[in-house]
Amino acid sequence: MPHPKAYLALCTHTHLFPGARCRLQGLPHPAAFAAAPEPIDVYLRFSDGTATAAELHTDAPTGPTLKVAAYTTAAGTPVDDSTWTVKGFTRKETEVELTIDTRTRT
């Protein structure tokens, strides 16, 4: 169950990888968020219908990061928890699209 204040993000694939995109929905001020992202709780929903919790952090030394909880794809593939750098934030009408960059080593 997602955190009650988590923002839904619809992802274009069943997992994250460099170049993957997820669209944050329900942000009160998408243009302001795209220009100056703030830390938020996120509920990622992947293209196969699976979902998991994530946290967007903006204070990392390498730039914004997305910390993603472990989950299992609809096909049964387990995906370990991971942290990804976020390459960019782009306003797309009422949504903000996150472009995933690289997986960080923890």
What's the multimeric state?
single chain
How would you characterize the largest beta sheet?
7 strands, mixed, barrel
Q: What structural class do you assign from the helix and strand content?
A: mainly beta
Which range best describes the helical content: under 10%, 10-25%, 25-40%, 40-55%, 55-70% or over 70%? under 10%
What does this protein structure show overall?
The chain has 106 residues and is mostly beta strands. Helices cover 6% and strands 47% of the residues. The longest helix is centred in the N-terminal third of the chain and has 6 residues, at 30-35.
Q: Which terms summarize this structure?
A:
7-stranded mixed beta barrel, mainly beta, 106 residues
Which helices and strands appear, and what pairs or packs with what?
Elements: E1 7-11, E2 21-24, H1 30-35, E3 40-45, E4 51-57, E5 65-68, E6 71-72, E7 78-79, E8 82-92, E9 95-103
Parallel strand pairs: 1-3
Antiparallel strand pairs: 1-2, 2-9, 3-4, 4-5, 5-8, 6-7, 8-9
Outline:
Helix content is 6%, strand content 47%. It is mainly β and 106 residues long. The longest helix is centred in the first third of the chain and has 6 residues, at 30-35.
